[in-house]
Amino acid sequence: MKTEQEIIKEVSDFVREAVRQYDSGHGWSHIERVVRLALYIHECENRGDRFTVELAALLHDVGDHKFAVHDGPAEIRALLGRLGVKESVTEEVVSINEKISFSKGPATGQKSDELQIVQDADRLDAMGAVGIARAFSYGGFMGREIYDPRAGLPGQPGVSSSSRNSASTIHHFYDKLLLLRNLMNSATGRRLADERHDFMVSFLGQFMREWNQGTFPGEKPDLTNNSEQSE
Fold first, then answer.
1. I need a labelling partner for 31 at 20 to 30 A (CA). Which of 18, 41, 96, 143 fits?
2. Which secondary-structure segment (H or E) carries 42?
């Protein structure tokens, strides 16, 4: 019989290989951050089974539809079955893998404590400075425009646009990332989300100021730099 630590080690090795072909924003470093966040939320909230939370956080992106065509739940069942994990734990981990994604919409029925915790952790990693870096990493991976000014944006940050397929990486903030703060399941998740959300709003304001600089009537470029200052 394997110990929980031995199981976690083998699952970690499996996941590290499974996400090797993902972009850097969804690779092993993302998994590590989600695990740390999930365990932190678990300890702060004092609910859910720690072992299940850690397994689910490790395996939440296996079979991610953005990168893979294989069956994530089937792979998880085969792996955890081989490692002797209890069937009830395995089925909860599979359920989290199936329900965690933002793109699948709200989960139907009651969310388990473990799903709430791992989902919060995954969504937190899509926010703030790390979330901004991940968004542009994935956008580049997919060949997406940084920003397409021809496609309209919502009037207020945090209000989703009508498009399900983001027109650019900047549009992705309005389609998903700015909505995440209000979707947190736990008090700890909401507390951590506040700062990250505010940072993204600040970034978008600065981005738009720089993007549009020099385009407003009456605005003149600063031509005072001489050659010595430019060198």
1. 143
2. helix 28-45
